[in-house]
Write a structure and sequence with these properties.
Number of domains of chain A: 2
Helix content of chain A: 25-40%
Order of helices and strands of chain A: HEEHEEEHEHHHEHEEEHEEEHEEHEHEH
Radius of gyration of chain A: 24 Å
Oligomer: homodimer
Structural class of chain A: alpha+beta
Low-confidence stretches of chain A: none
Largest sheet of chain A: 9 strands, mixed
CATH topology of the largest domain in chain A: Aminopeptidase
Largest interface: A-B, 55 and 55 residues
Number of helices of chain A: 12
Distance between the termini of chain A: 19 Å
CATH class of the largest domain in chain A: Alpha Beta
Chain lengths: 408, 408
């Protein structure tokens, strides 16, 4: 039984939130001086807990149980988006710290310990999931050389701040039995359902398209409707087909979004000659994504064939779904039931480090509720009671996973 | 019979096009040094034709028949949009010069002469129809003081270039029997129908709305479809209703346009919290405009009532339709028939100085074809044969209007 200390957990979370504090939120972007400072603080806390702890050259903070040859890896990330929330990935990292600390305090070891990690730049200031990809030896030097932020800052420049640290820590499949990551939900579903514990069935795949329509700019007063080549109208028709048909052909979990739309030249009295929209859809099943994409591309082709406007779709993002390991999810559910908590199974609509780890070792994610579904914003929050309850459930689940692993 | 000289007409048009020549087009924005220079050249040509000619303080170039107490006023404007066409309003002004010159050469006067005018800033670099509104005493000093260009240049500053000219020329209803304006069509209808002469039934009224939707920014991966407040989707539904229903409730001449659309924050993975579009519709009948507006505002109200997104519409432009005088249109049709030309009656979907003059004196407009419907672009053109044919028809029509006026 790993007995966590709720007050110590909350205290560590609040201490971490002081690095980059911004009102009720935190601004601590990857590899910034504040991010590095927070990671050094974390390394200190991990060492106090009895782990062999350090920072590596890409900024990953890692604490290794020195008493065991096998371990459950628990963690998430402590970098944030600009003006982000105080919990987000920090929650999962401090859960890991607290659970490892409580576990070490039990003294007992069955030969399977707990390692803790905070991955660098999950948020993609420079390169999304840089830390977990580096940990899994899944990123090339060329990618790192090429990566830069939206404002043009180079990753290689930012990494000068950690250049004196040791070579990257790596995943060791012989050691790392499983990966567990807790995170805030970043959505409204747990709160709406009145549940405290979410068990992630899988991380959605994402397909994103840049859709372009090319017509002709004409005077919107002097050109009759039937003589126009209206690029905007072509994309509005496409948007209408998506809204009508996606609910019928997608799964219950499918989500989609038209996040941007631009009409050019953009004048009130000029028929748009060019229109551009960014459209994405997400689902946990590749088969569903394939059906949606096939329909989308058919409609795009029909738009071009039916009228005087040319419409093209260009895939800009293609992230495959990542399944989570059901047995670990079951361990979380059993642990939750022990605390009288009903769980909710749901996909993760957002990306996480577990998306990378899940390709290499058995992995699972647990969510706690986000108040109002808020995320990536200084208004993000989770009640103290939910934070503590989540950590107790995760600790209990980790105990079960260790027991199962030790028995093998 | 006013016998125009086609070669002289084309020569004057080409000479005028040299002021601000830009490739195949002209860049001669209102009150620029080139625009003033072109107007001084025009004043010289009008004086050579025997008119009392001058420039006034707002830039209007006016030539007055000194031999008559009544006159038909003919003209248009010689300012252009940036990188505009070589004809546009210049066509109507040089038609007026040529017709007045040919008329003066006949020597004969029935007591009704021909006055010629080029109005300043019809294109609205500073203030749309500044010249015709000044001529009709329909603009206030406060409007002139406040007016500035899109780039922040003040009209009052630009008017320093004409500050030493005489006080504004004014419409004199006792003198000015009627106003006739020729212009390129700026649309594709005459060309598509194979007609050379368009008779304008009226200038459309314009109603323009800024439509705003206010929802909530949510993560497009983690927020289920039924829990979103998607401002973009609300405007796409409105666009779809417009596309479906406007063709049924408008007239055969109604045109409409969604010229701009913006989604905010505009990220692929964020549900739009704000969406904004600019929507306008045009028709020659106030009753039709009223029906369209009533439906639009109903849909906007329903959008807000039906869902979690608030939609509002704000009228930004409201220009009433202007009827043209049928008797003068008939004179153009008769003149055209004499030359074997079949005419086409059509509304003007764009604004013109005749929109201002038509509120004060009997007015008419005649169109000649625009190749490919091109306008406000350096590719704008009309064949030489169409240019000359149009001037012959207008000259003949002017002769008829003079005869009718003289008989009263």
């Amino acid at each position: 039984m790993i007995e966590i200390d709720g007050a110590r957990l909350l205290n560590d979370l609040r201490t971490l939130a002081n690095f980059g504090k911004a009102g009720t939120g935190v601004d601590r972007i990857a590899l910034s001086p504040l991010d590095i400072e927070a990671r050094r603080w974390l390394v200190g806390r991990l060492a106090e807990a009895g782990l062999e702890a350090g920072l590596d050259r890409v900024g990953n903070a890692y604490g290794r149980d020195p008493t065991t040859s096998r371990a459950i890896l628990i963690g998430s990330h402590t970098d944030t988006v600009p003006m982000g929330g105080w919990l987000d990935g920090a929650l999962g990292v401090i859960y890991a710290l607290e659970i490892a600390r409580a576990f070490r305090a039990t003294g007992g070891s069955s030969g399977v310990g707990i390692d803790v990690i905070s991955f660098e730049d999950e948020e993609g200031t420079y390169l999304p999931c840089l830390g977990s990809r580096s940990f899994c030896n899944d990123v090339t030097d060329a990618e790192i050389s090429a990566a830069q932020s939206k404002t043009g800052d180079r990753l290689s420049e930012a990494l000068m701040r950690t250049k004196d640290e040791p070579a990257p820590f790596r995943l060791d499949p012989a050691r790392h039995v499983a990966y567990l990551e807790a995170h805030i939900e970043q959505g409204p579903r747990l709160e709406a359902a009145g549940r405290r514990i979410g068990i992630v069935t899988g991380l959605v795949g994402i397909r994103r398209f840049r859709i372009l329509a090319h017509g002709q700019a004409d005077h919107a007063g002097t050109t009759p409707m039937d003589m126009r080549k209206d690029a905007g109208a072509a994309l509005f028709r496409l948007a209408s087909r998506i809204a009508t048909t996606f609910p019928k052909i997608g799964s219950a979990e499918t989500v989609w979004n038209i996040g941007s739309m631009t009409l050019r030249p953009g004048a009130a009295n000029v028929v748009p000659s060019e229109a551009e929209m960014v459209f994405e859809f997400r689902d946990t099943q590749t088969a569903t994504l394939d059906v949606l994409e096939r329909h989308l591309l058919e409609w795009v082709a029909e738009s071009s064939n039916a009228g005087p406007v040319t419409v093209t779709a260009q895939a800009t993002t293609r992230i495959p779904p990542t399944a989570m390991t059901p047995a670990i999810g079951d361990a979380i559910a059993t642990a939750a039931a022990d605390y009288g908590e009903q769980t909710m199974s749901l996909p993760s609509g957002a990306g996480h480090d577990a998306m990378v780890l899940g390709r290499f070792i058995p992995s699972a994610m647990m969510f706690v509720p986000s108040i109002g579904g808020r995320s990536h914003d200084i208004t993000e929050n989770t009640s103290d009671a939910d934070i503590v309850a989540g950590c107790r459930v995760l600790a209990s689940a980790v105990g079960r996973v260790i027991a199962t692993a030790a028995a093998r």
